[in-house]
Write a structure and sequence with these properties.
Rossmann fold; 208 residues; single chain
Length: 208
């Protein structure tokens, strides 16, 4: 079984993806970490996130086994990843890896921005997770605070809105809800409630 979860930044798709994978005994891939890893490799080497050649080389050399998720979730890496992910050749370089991950038995849960539309268009279950920009910004602020990163909520909201615009307007695999995806608005939901609704969607599909 393949479950595709898409949605904008801080919508709750990552947390949901992990819980669904654990619940159904599937592997999980946060595809956003792939782009963050590419961005971090560029930043660590002193290159601009807009350096296409360096970005593609970093994508070709990606090794998820070496990921330090805490370092990849920093504010600076997130901003750079938003730029890196708009480079078509980077997305192409990571496409085969993501599809291979999804295809291995017993299946997987992948979350990102183009899973249901590009990476796994034939996924068994597609969920598009969303929430208001204000709620997403507050969630992201709390994440940064837990990691000891001093950030301003207004700045986080502005960054969320910029990323939404870039993700939805880019030419390569823009963020959009797949025609056959189920919408899950988490604005008023905590993690437990979001998981319960998502699991109900999965069960409904499995029964069919």
């Amino acid at each position: 079984m393949i479950i595709a979860i898409d949605g904008p930044a801080a919508s709750g798709k990552g947390t949901l993806g992990k819980r669904l994978a654990t619940h159904y005994g599937l592997r999980h891939l946060d595809t956003g970490l792939l782009y963050r890893a590419v961005a971090k490799a560029l930043l660590d080497a002193g290159h601009s996130p807009n350096n296409q050649a360096r970005a593609v080389a970093a994508a070709d050399a990606i090794d998820p086994a070496s990921f330090d998720e805490g370092a990849l979730k920093s504010h600076a890496v997130g901003e750079a990843a938003s730029l890196v992910s708009a480079i078509p050749d980077v997305r192409a370089a990571l496409l085969a890896f993501q599809r291979s991950f999804a295809a291995r038995p017993p299946g997987a849960v992948l979350d990102g921005r183009d899973i249901g539309t590009v990476i796994c268009p034939n996924a068994d279950v597609k969920i598009f997770v969303t929430a208001t920009a204000q709620v997403r910004a507050h969630r992201r602020l709390l994440e940064f605070q837990r990691r000891g990163e001093p950030v301003d909520e207004a700045a986080v909201l502005a960054d969320i809105l910029r990323r939404d615009e870039r993700d939805m307007s880019r030419a390569a695999a823009p963020l959009k809800q797949a025609a056959d995806a189920h919408m899950l608005d988490t604005t008023e939901l905590n993690a437990d409630a979001a998981f319960a609704q998502a699991a109900e969607l999965v069960e409904r599909v499995r029964r069919r």
